Amino acid sequence: MLTKTAEKILERKYYLKDINDKPIENFVQLCARVAYHIAKTEQDVEYWTGRYWQLMTELWFLPAGRILANSNTKNGVLYNCYVLGIEDSRTDIYTALTKSAEIFAHGGGIGYNFSNLRECGAPVSIGCQASGPVSFLKLFNTSAQVISQTSRRGAQLAILNVDHIDIGRFIHAKDIQGELEHFNLSVGITDDFIEAALDGQLFGLRSRYDNKFITVDAWKLLNDIAEHAWKNGEPGIIFLDAIERGNATPHLGRIEACNACAEAPLLPGEACCLGSINLTKMLTETENGLVVDSQKLAYTVSISTRFLDAVHNVSHHLDPESADIILQTRKIGLGICGWADTLAMLELQYDSQEALELAAYIGETMQKIAYETSVFLAKEKGAYPAFDKDKSRNIWFPDMPVTPTRNAMLLSFAPTGTTSLVMGVNSGIEPFFALDYKKNVTEGDSDVKYQISNKLEYEGVKTAHEISPIDHVRMQAVWQNFVDGAISKTINLPNDATVEDIRDVIIHGWKLGLKGMTVYRDESRDFQILEKA
Q1: CATH assignment of the domain containing 204
Q2: Per the structure, how many domains does the chain have?
Q3: Residues 19, 417, 325, CA angle at the centre, nearest 5°?
Q4: Residue numbers of the chain with a pLDDT score lower than 50
Q5: pTM as predicted
Q6: Which residues on neighbouring strands pair with residue 516, listed in sequence order?
Q7: Which run of H or E residues covers position 291?
Q8: What are the tens digits of pLDDT across the range 174-207?
Q9: Parallel, antiparallel, or unpaired: how do β-strands 109-113 and 213-217 relate?
Q10: Helix ranges (DSSP H) in 149-247
Q11: 404 belongs to a structural domain
């Protein structure tokens, strides 16, 4: 059932081990440990343990790494994704730094928006000048590096809003290769900025010290962002207004940050638990060939939704304050993997109209079933505590009444880098990278690196660089129509792509309603995770 690669990953990262670092469980036992731990607060523990165990052992669904590794252990923290807020004071900055160290030590990744920090050169109360957000990125990067030497590699996403006076410094922060290596950088872009750029207008950058504005050429700034993405894949893009339109709890605040891989938009202090459905297992053979089994898909979505909600009941928390914030909204992120494999099995090209229509069908089914399950769970166990019938939004079906749900977020498509390898399928909603490729894997901050080779068994499959950038965006946008969280996906471009190509992709993604995007031009870095063999 499991490939050699899957067994290697499970042994390295997820199996329980003895004092000599030897595994003391196999995959079936791991699934039993996880299933029981997640089900133990249900009224019928045996029944739900069986349901969860079956989903995992059949590889229909797997939860994210922290759930696999930490269920029923002393660590006990089951969240992969966190967002920390940072206000404009030394106390708040160093409080966030301390919290980040604890999160890294327990295996989580973190997103931050640094836009509240005053710009470089602004006065501070003790008569000095502020060093600006980029200087503090270096501080957080060093902390992640130190923790990574004894733990999982600390993944971080830093966001700076496009109206910050230091946006130029931020865009240039990784010009030198090796700088801020424990950070991904993204610019928080707003609708009014894109509109100003398209109209050839000036755009205001606001001082966080005295709220005064300086104006810049919006089109030139957009090109600067595109040029740096062309150079090395950064910065990525976070579409802030699109994210806020998907905020079910606007009364709790505006969402301005995502987790480290950008698939989970979260308020400061929130965390999200993740899991993914293996779409290849949702196919069934009929007299007319392979088709999506709608009943199996609906069943898997429903049970997986309940599983992820139950994670909140059993996870340990880093402190009482974080527990309170996380449990106020009970956000979950159910996603998918194996989309490229599924299309290949159905003999559909990734950029075909049939593939887009199938994505819409599966996405609509997932949205409907996850929402109905969350409504049912709210009736059975109570709505998420922050639910307010007068202030919360029905972000899933805006034309319907605001109905209590168990969770304030349901779907979120993570990159599934490791769990997809365990399932033996391609990651997330990505196309195959190449017909024959290698994946370079780095663990922690050590020199432990290894390659995973993958030669496709499918013939005639269009791969990542044979698909136009706009078709990459279209596929992501179709899924995004049904995903209330966000989607982690790379828009792959060939090495000869231009800055203008990348700028056009950003604009197209905004027009189609994406919540975020990463654009990567092949071989624009010395080290990249995926390489053609």
Answers
A1: 3.20.70.20
A2: 2
A3: 80
A4: 444-450
A5: 0.94
A6: 238
A7: strand 289-292
A8: 988 788 999 999 999 999 999 999 999 999 999 9
A9: unpaired
A10: 167-171, 191-198, 218-232, 240-245
A11: no
Classify 203 as helix, strand or coil.
Answer: strand
Residues 404/383, Cβ–Cβ less than 8 Å: yes
> Alpha-carbon distance 406 to 98, whole Å?
31
Q: Among residues 208, 233, 258, which one ends one of the domains? A: 258
Domain assignment present for residue 18? The answer is no
Q: Which two tokens stand for residue 477?
A: 């946008």
Residue 484 lies in a domain: yes
Instruction: Give the C-alpha separation, 161 to 150, whole Å.
Output: 33
Query: How far apart (Å, rounded) are the C-alpha atoms in residues 526 and 183?
Result: 17
What range does the domain containing 104 cover? 81-258
Query: Token pair for residue 7?
Result: 């067994």
Q: pLDDT tens, 378-432? A: 999 999 999 999 999 999 999 999 999 999 999 999 999 899 999 999 999 999 9
The residues annotated with a catalytic role in the active site are: 259, 261, 263
On whether residue 204 sits in a domain, the answer given is: yes
Domain boundary among 237, 258, 279: 258
Q: Which two tokens stand for residue 188?
A: 């928080």
Distance between CA atoms of residues 5 and 113, nearest Å: 36
140 φ/ψ angles, rounded to the nearest 5 degrees: -65, -35
Residue with tokens 């079933």: 369
**DSSP 8-state class, residue 430:** P
